[in-house]
Structures are given as C-alpha cells and as structure tokens.
Specification:
By secondary structure, the protein is an alpha+beta fold. The chain has helices spanning 15-18, 46-62, 145-153; strands spanning 2-3, 25-30, 77-86, 95-105, 109-118, 121-134, 139-140. Strands 1, 2, 3, 4, 5, 6 and 7 form a seven-stranded antiparallel beta sheet that branches.
Amino acid sequence: MILSQRPPGRGDWHDDEMASFSWPYHLDLPVRFRDVDAYGHVNNAVYFTYLEQARCECYMALLSRNDPCHQEEGLDFVVARAECDYVAPIHAGDVIRVEVRPSAVGTKSFAFAYEMTVDGTVRATGSTVLVAYEHRERQTKPLPAELAEELRAGLPDHA
C-alpha cells in the first residue's frame, strides 16, 4: 500500500495538523493476486475492501489519528450504506487510485463519494453513508463540530 497524504499524527485533534489535509484524499493500492477471480479481473466484492481501506486511511489522516481500533481515538463511525458502480474491469498488476471526498454532511452522519482509477481511467465509483457512533454506549452521536467543518470544506460545491 502506498500512502499518499497521511500527515504524522499524535492521535488527537490539532488544528495545525488538520490544516495540512486536503481534499480529495487519495490512496494508491496495488491489486493483489487474491483480489482477482477466475475471469482474471478483480472480484466485485473486493471493490468494497478498496473503499474501506481508502475510507479508513482518509478518516485517520483527517483526524491525525494513528490507531483505528483505539476505543476513543479510532474509527468512531459505522457504515449505514455502501454502493459501488462498476465501469470497467480492474486486473491483477494494476495500481488503483482511490479518491475520497465528502458528498454530504449532516448532524450525525456524513457521506463519502469515491472514484477508482487506473492510469487516469475511471474503473468504478462508489459511495458510503457513515454514522457517528459511540461504541461503548451503542448509540449514534453528533458529529464533532471540527469534523463537520473539515468535511464541509471538502464538499464539491464548497467555495
């Protein structure tokens, strides 16, 4: 995996670190042999693992966090919806660039839009709806104001 925009983090909120983050976030992923099926192209289910990897890396970089499994400073959302539209096949040996950008921001949820390209050609697009979640209490929670602001800065119509 080639990380492209991950700033060094200390595992907490720091305005100076967050300012170094920019949209769209992107992550380059090599296609592994295990990703391909008998037809020689990436299996449809594997596309969702690419979205997941890019989403988690993006979120951790955005918040300057280091450990996605940390109870308080890890991934504090759940996926409510995930979609993928397949445009053209991806093959073993390809390197996929997954671009991530916010597409909606609510009070307790946000959405990401994704574009997967190989050598600049779109191969798939996707979207996810993510809900802020308090794992200990097992309930949704409001988006932190700083996170909502950073997400809104990445919306396509943001000036």
